[in-house]
Amino acid sequence: xxxxxxxxxxxxxxITAPHTGVxxxxxxxxxxxxxxxxxxxxxxxxxxxxxxxxxAALDFNRVLQELLQQIAIIPFRFPTILTDRTALSxxxxxxxxxxxxxxxxxxxxxxxxxxxxxxTSTPPxxxxxxxxxxxxxxxxxxxxxxxxxxxxxxxxxEPLAKEWRHHETAAGIxxxxxxxxSDVQAFLRQMKSASVPNESEPxxxxxxxxxxxxxxx
Amino acid sequence: MxxxxxxxxxxxxxxxxxxxLLDILDHVLNAGxxxxxxxxxxxxxxxxxxxxxDVVLTSVETALRHMRSQIPNASxxxxxxxxxxx
Lengths: 217, 86
Fold this sequence. Notes:
- The complex is a heterodimer of chains A (217) and B (86).
- In chain A, 35% of the residues lie in helices and 27% in strands.
- Chain A has helices at 45-49, 53-68, 85-105, 132-157, 184-192, and strands at residues 3-10, 27-32, 35-41, 74-75, 81-82, 109-117, 161-169, 172-180, 203-208.
- In chain A, strands 1, 2, 3, 4 and 5 form a 5-stranded antiparallel β-sheet that branches.
- In chain A, a hairpin with a 2-residue loop joins strand 2 and strand 3 (35-41).
- The relative contact order of chain A is 0.16.
- Chain B has 86 residues and is mainly alpha-helical.
- Chain B contains 2 helices and 3 strands, in the order βαββα.
- Chain B has a two-stranded antiparallel sheet.
- In chain B, strand 2 and strand 3 form a beta hairpin.
- The N and C termini of chain B lie far apart (47 Å).
- The model of chain B is unreliable at 72-86 (pLDDT under 50).
- At the A-B interface, strand 1, helix 2, strand 4, strand 5 and helix 3 of A face strand 1, helix 1 and helix 2 of B.
């Protein structure tokens, strides 16, 4: 039977896995050397044919969060449904070294995220450009403005962030800080103290699995 | 000189401040290991990972429309996009 994959962790006997996952299915564990993977037997038709899919996504997130509270996890993107347990075992065996290294490096760490909205009018003086040069200067000014905001958050995060990454998306800037799980509250306090313009509508969320830091830079 | 942002929103289980549906969906749909190929089950030739994305995005738009009608002063950023319904 097909299986829905949730996440991978290091093998730790004391971890308490949630009993049920998406659509009430029983959570099972697959062990490959020093890794364990959490999955449940799943009929793909149940995903689209039953209750709203958001419920399934929230159930999936619940499983991840319950495990993340106990140990570092590498989540699968929802919904990843494999043909059977053998296929999942085969995938884990192929990537065992890569995931073991990542989980060892990310042990005791979580990811915090800061989102900044890109206002089309920032910097405030931007108006319709009269030439290509003017347009490029406007873009340059906008990037400098955004870089300045990111730098303020990064500076505030500096004492606690083990690593920092950020990238631009269509909706704005997403910044990711890798912090020790014992530092989450302190990190949130640091973020509150960051001096940034309100128009960037900063939003801090977390803790999340350290998905952005799976590969070393 | 900028001051500590009064509009800073913090959504963290560690502060008993719940994350929004959008925060959660964004993470479960966009972050994590992606498996492609014959190991993954697909419906009508579309990997479920991507099928799920389409279905959930449409559902989120419906949810956002509902939220907008419930909260008259909600941020314009909550406005649904112009994507056509599937």
